[in-house]
Amino acid sequence: MTTTGRIHSWDLSTGVDGPGTRFVLFVSGCPLRCLYCANPDTWHMRDGREATVDDVMTEIEKYRDFVTVAGGGVTVTGGEPLLQPAFTAGILRRCKELGLHTALDTSGFLGARATDELLADTDLVLLDIKSFDITTYRKLTGGELAPTLNFATRLDRLGVPMRIRYVLVPGWTDDPDSVDALARFVAGLGAVERVDVLPFHKLGAAKYEALGIPFPLRDSPVPDLARIEGVRDHFNRHGVRAC
């Protein structure tokens, strides 16, 4: 019997959600409430539509040849994929059986729910570390930092390749000491391929308005190029490739 989950949507993406052109599956439900979240419409599982692993694979198989030729694969994101670990694991397993490259985009907050078998079927983890300061992390997400760091350490021990994703929000995640501490932590993880410093944006503001939810960072500035490059330099100085 195929596992059932709840999904928001799927899309094709190039260069953002892993290598090459990818089939990106957005699952529904997330335990965090990041102030800069661009997809508030994925927060609640009840808002997603029910789908089985077979349903999802039927869609993926339509694009199998295309994403393979394009050097891509399949990325499961959300929401938070590890809120539905069995469903996510089923999709990753089936993708590997098709010879597709797999990526898991996660905050790591629910990393303890990822079985070793799930991770064995994951070619790349896109790990979102929201902040390296405990207090800032709590204010920014509503959750705790420790589970994410524990998950990163576990991935490193298992040898699962990682790309760290770090959203740069002026006044929130640009503190030099915090960035430097994160850079030192990441430098100690041999499985990290690179760090993607992602500038905060407001492209999701219209979704908040449509849902009748205030956008918490509506008045926050977006980072300029100099600030972005400055954060990247912190990582580079510690021998970590930052893009």
Write the layout of secondary structure elements.
Layout: E1 4-14, E2 21-27, E3 49-52, H1 53-62, H2 64-69, E4 73-77, H3 85-97, E5 101-106, H4 116-120, E6 124-128, H5 134-141, H6 146-158, E7 162-168, H7 176-187, E8 192-199, H8 205-211, H9 225-237
Parallel strand pairs: 2-4, 4-5, 5-6, 6-7, 7-8
Antiparallel strand pairs: 1-2, 1-3
List keywords for this structure.
243 residues; eight-stranded mixed β-sheet; TIM Barrel; 8 strands; single chain; 22% strand; alpha/beta
Helix content: 25-40%
Largest sheet: 8 strands, mixed
- Helix count, per DSSP? 9
**CATH H-level superfamily title:** Aldolase class I
Give the CA-CA distance, first to last residue. Answer: 42 Å
Strand content: 15-25%
The top-level CATH class is: Alpha Beta
Structural class estimated from helices and strands: alpha/beta
Low-confidence stretches: none
The name of the CATH topology is TIM Barrel
Short characterization:
The chain has helices spanning 53-62, 64-69, 85-97, 116-120, 134-141, 146-158, 176-187, 205-211, 225-237, and strands at residues 4-14, 21-27, 49-52, 73-77, 101-106, 124-128, 162-168, 192-199. Strands 3-1-2-4-5-6-7-8 form an eight-stranded mixed sheet. Helix content is 36%, strand content 22%.
